[in-house]
Amino acid sequence: MLLRHTTAEIIERTALTVNPAKTCQPIGAMYAALGIHRCLPHSHGSQGCCAYHRSTLTRHYKEPVMAGTSSFTEGASVFGGQANLVQAIHNIFTIYEPEVIAIHTTCLSETIGDDIPQIIAKARAEGKIPPGKYVIHANTPSYVGSHVTGFANLVKGMVDYFATAGEGRKENRLNLIPGYVEPADMEEIKRLAAELGINCIMFPDTSNVLNTPQTGRYAMYPPGGVKVADLQRIGTSLGTVALGRLASGPAARALDTKCKVPCEILDLPIGLKATDRFIDTLRRIAGVAVPDTINLERGRLLDVIADMHQYFFGRRVALAGDPDQLIALTEFLVDIDMWPVYIVTGTPGKKFESRIRELTKTVPYPVKVQAGGDLFLLHQWLKQEPVDLLIGNTYLKYIARDEDIPLVRFGFPILDRIGHVYFPTVGYRGGLRLLEKILDALLDRQDREAPEESFELVM
Ligand code: SF4
User: Fold this and answer.
1) pLDDT digits over 173-218, tens only?
2) Residue 162 in contact with residue 231, Cβ under 8 Å?
3) Quick check: CB of 26 below 6 Å from ligand 1?
4) How far is the C-alpha of 327 from the C-alpha of 343, rounded, in Å?
5) Ligand 1 centroid from CA 42, angstroms
6) Which CA distances in Å does 168 have to 122, 236, 238, 250?
7) Peptide bond preceding 204 in cis form (omega within 30 of 0)
8) Which residue has the least CA distance to atom 4 on ligand 1?
9) With a threshold of 0.70, does the pTM exceed it?
10) What average pLDDT does the segment 297-311 reach?
11) Residue 106 in contact with ligand 1 by CB distance below 6 A
């Protein structure tokens, strides 16, 4: 029992997190930065932070993740990191030739209080930023929020640095902000918009950056990512559809304020209803009809839900992960008559709890929900009363093993499996994959537990 010290008895904790259900802000910022074409993320802090951020992303995506670091030592920690950052900007443009450097801060540089815009201005004044190259930044102190907050901050940074209203004329085009999802999800969101015949700019876009094919040649800057020229046009789009309130909402609102581009902030399109809302919003804004190809995909998902429903009904589920994902997932699970009874996110936020309560009000069972919670608390709830299934990231595997509960890996980070970045869980097709994974886990358990006389060939 690896977690044998977890007790069923719950003692109120206010200043202690055990086994957090989140990672740190810069990881999300680094992920978002990789969604800009020819962008090198830069971690303004110590080498240890940067190594942690890079290794977490590399282990999840199974692709080499490149990033610079300001390499703070004792001097920078006491006197500030200005000299290190100016030198880093010079070195990075000289040696690695990115088009953009996206700087995010760390706990240390935030505590010192380094003024990044002032340092960038100094680097520009000293000629360290070549013409036609860009340096953007986001503040990502990791003692607040989570990797989702860091992602949101850097996406908002793209708006702050690149968006312009132009001459005020709007072009027939939509912006799509995909939220903190896998590269394959971003690809799927773009595909659905293309099926509807919509001209769009997606930012950030990590498809074909962190799910690239094997070509036999290493490319420091893979072909994917939103181009700077496109980011400079987002302020002249007709509107923005932002997926995920926490991850995409701040950028969408900032663009509305800065360039008068109206936005609609939706849930991530995970599951039937959320995908319906996404498709309907695109259809309405663009004034197009939904093509038969999308209706066909929807019909297939509906059919599979009907076929699988008998196995899902009344199964109790515990979820841990990021708020945007959990909200959409909870709605989907309730729709298929599963009962999400324990829901924990490490990212703080009161709205999350009230939204989950709203979504689960038909669940005929007491629902426990905690924003800013940890996996220790989730484990304690499970010790008091177990569930049929766990859904969440790799860190749940210890609880799954100790309590002997099947686990479906979903969310970020997944460090112990390969392939997840290639298969979307958004859209109708993504819903099919999610349902298949859930049913496989439930039926594998049923097979394992079945006595010989009821071990069935046909289930
Ligand atoms: S010190 Fe802060 S920024 Fe660095 S790895 Fe730890 S939590 Fe993340």
Assistant:
1) 999 999 999 999 999 999 999 999 999 999 999 999 999 999 999 9
2) yes
3) yes
4) 10
5) 14
6) 32, 7, 11, 22
7) yes
8) 49
9) yes
10) 98
11) yes
What average pLDDT does range 349-366 have in this prediction?
95
Angle between helices 272-286 and 427-449 (to 10 degrees): 180
Residues 173, 175, 176, CA angle at the centre, nearest 5°?
A: 130
- Given ligand 1 and candidates 106, 139, 140, 147, which is best to mutate, with the most ligand atoms within 8 Å of its CB? 106
CA-closest residue to ligand 1 atom 5: 49
Kindly report the protein residue whose alpha carbon is nearest to atom 8 of ligand 1.
24
> 346 C-alpha to center of ligand 1: Å?
15
Task: Please give the average per-residue pLDDT across 359-375, as a whole number.
Answer: 96
Hunting for tokens 């599963």 — which residue is that? Answer: 338
Q: Is the pLDDT of residue 31 over 90?
A: yes
Atom 2, ligand 1: which residue's CA is nearest?
A: 107
Atom index in ligand 1 nearest the CA of residue 53 equals 5
- What is the rounded end-to-end Cα distance, in angstroms, of the chain? 33
The protein residue with its alpha carbon nearest to ligand 1, atom 6, reads 49
Percent of the chain predicted with pLDDT > 70: 100
CA dihedral 264, 268, 274, 277 (to 10 degrees): 20
Q: Which tokens sit at 379?
A: 């484990």
Distance between CA atoms of residues 306 and 432, nearest Å = 12
Main-chain dihedrals φ then ψ at residue 239, nearest 5 degrees: -170, 175
Q: Tell me, using a 6 A CB cutoff, whether residue 28 lines ligand 1.
A: no
Find out whether the beta carbon of 398 lies less than 6 Å from any atom of ligand 1.
no
Ligand 1 pocket check: which of 142, 144, 347 to mutate, most ligand atoms within 8 Å of Cβ?
A: 142
Q: Which residues of 2-21 are buried (b: 16+ CB within 10 A; e: fewer)?
A: ebeebeeeeeeeeeeeebeb
**Residue bearing tokens 């669940």:** 363
Nearest residue (CA) to ligand 1, atom 1: 107
Tokens of residue 360, six digits: 């689960």
pLDDT band per the 50, 70, 90 thresholds, residue 349: confident
* Contact partners, residue 244, CB within 8 Å, separation at least 6: 179, 180, 181, 267, 268, 324, 325
Is the pLDDT confidence value at 153 over 90?
yes
Tally Cβ neighbours within 10 Å of residue 220.
Answer: 11
Whose structure tokens read 């100790």? 402
**Does 396 sit in the ligand 1 pocket, CB within 6 Å?**
no
Distance 207 CA to ligand 1 centre (A): 26
